[in-house]
Amino acid sequence: MAPETPGNEPQALSNLLHENRRFEPPVELAAAANVTEAAYTQAAADRLAFWEGAADRLTWAKRWETTLEWNAPFAKWFIGGELNVAYNCVDRHVEEGRGDKVAYYWEGEPEGDTRVLTYNDLKSEVSKAANALLELGVRKGDRVAVYMPMIPELPIAMLACARIGAIHSVVFGGFSATALKSRIDDADAKLVITADGGYRRGNPSALKPTVDEAVAQCPQVEHVLVVRRTGQNVAATDKDVWWHDLVERQSDQHTPEPHDAEDPLYILYTSGTTGRPKGILHTTGGYLTQTAWTHDAVFDLKPDKDIYWCTADIGWVTGHSYIVYGPLANGATSVIYEGTPDTPHRGRFWEIVQKYKVTLLYTAPTAIRTFMKWGDDIPAKYDMSSLRVIGSVGEPINPEAYVWYRENIGGSRCPVVDTWWQTETGAVMISPLPGVTSGKPGAAMRPLPGIVADVVDDQGNSVPNGGGGFLVIREPWPSMLRTIWGDDQRYIDTYWSRFEGMYFPGDGAKKDEDGDLWLLGRVDDVMLISGHNISTTEVESALVSHPKVAEAAVVGATDPVTGQAIVSFVILRGTAEESDDIAADLRNHVAKTLGPIAKPRQILVVPELPKTRSGKIMRRLLRDVAENRSVGDVTTLADSTVMDLISEKLPSAKSED
Ligand code: ATP
Ligand code: MG
Fold this sequence. Notes:
By secondary structure, this protein is of the alpha/beta class. Helix content is 30%, strand content 22%. The strands form eight sheets. The protein has an eight-stranded mixed beta sheet, sandwiched between helices. A seven-stranded mixed beta sheet has the order 5-4-17-16-18-19-20, sandwiched between helices.
């Protein structure tokens, strides 16, 4: 740790947490792994040749001429190449004799409500939907907003857009009319695809009224295409077209045209944890190359044996890349689940794993910590011996949550792959490889082959092992965002201005003594305590390592003595009782784990934490609470009543010493 230098700006992030546990790759998995250490060597020797090899996994209508053109910060990959994403995800599997293979096992939230779609089925459905879009006047380059529940028509709609070269903009089905309207306007969408509703927490949850409210203020929208899912009453508007009327009567034949490798595939607005959402633009060839390669490598996918399940919502990037494009490009069999993990009971996820004999599972730390809170006895009731690799994405995974996941879900046998990436990167960037990496709980480990990442200080100098600072990416990668839709300047300012010639994702990170990478959360959340930059992640992980704590969020609140002081919000585990001395207990536990500097000033036991729709903790709202301000913009919050529950707890908060 850097010595305290009052008056000087601290140089880097403190490195407080130490972890000695290691988990070797299972011997059998390593022996048959899709990717071995050789990939790192090969990619290090010739990065572009490595990505060319990955692009060869796809079927190109026309091979590219130039692999990369880099006019920093604007990249083009596989220039001159042409391909059709939907053809790669669907038709080619049928042509190669895999038409009867299951693409999706769909599990609706109401029990017994299931559908099975083979690659043949998907080809017919996507072709019909593509023909329907054409009938509605949608053409290549047009934008289509998609606001749907987790039903098969959602990936079908996305693939239909990709097939004809229309650009989809999927908006998470829980956003408000205002949020939807602003996204429709920003992308200037002419069609909205939606459903009457979907099932959530045991009840039909309407979507159409939100669309009606938004579209009433969007004159550029010509049609609203509506899937009947729940059968609930919907008000009809003159823009409405029912999916079952229009799509069902279309021909199931449609010839996919090749598109340029750099033609846009989709726009996706970031989840908005930190500010105004940005319309992230992804293109065709590079995006599909990296999503397909990483899905194969990180999960060690064996398409003939594995049943893969990513629990994310398709409305955020994990669902785009790892429910739709990556798995389908690889010809995988996936599970899609419509509803929430607690409906009709808290074992629903594990029941699904047992039912479909899921082998590869991909979920988020927020879900894992919720399962920890609910108790070990719930997953213990199910047979999950089919699982072989389990993954995590969305936030730093606390070492204790990692170990809980490994033991209680992975049966102490499955490697945990903690995958770091973001909407902007399009695909996984930093992650263990299950057949190669000796995993460390809490670490995302090494950049994947072909990715050049580093940790730098505020001058942009690489920090030595043992140091902390800013995560950067030093070289362009195939699935990188190409710009922010309609705003090149914001693209430059947001990602390429902090450090000369480097992509800055906005996250803090450290290198441990072995040079492995640990993600430390957003730099906006970093706390400045007595001249030291302390990451929220490390303090949260220390709290979660206490046996009574399931989940924790910490923020730095203005303090007259230390500049900022650490205020912690904790959720207790299912079995733990709230007692008078819990606060003192936890404060001492943190001091012992990380050192006295990281001792929280305050601990508040709360029933819930404010999270975005994608499950990320919104620390800026907690900062408002900790500093007794009125709470800021809550529009991207999953449940806006949470802030009231937390504020109620505040008067009882004691600052002890
Ligand atoms: P916004 O940028 O609008 O605030 P967002 O960043 O929450 O939205 P995403 O692109 O879904 O939207 O999230 C990416 C961020 O999630 C990363 O920048 C990082 O902070 C965090 N993240 C994702 N995976 C991991 C991981 N494995 N470890 C640590 N952090 C992660
Ligand atoms: Mg972000």
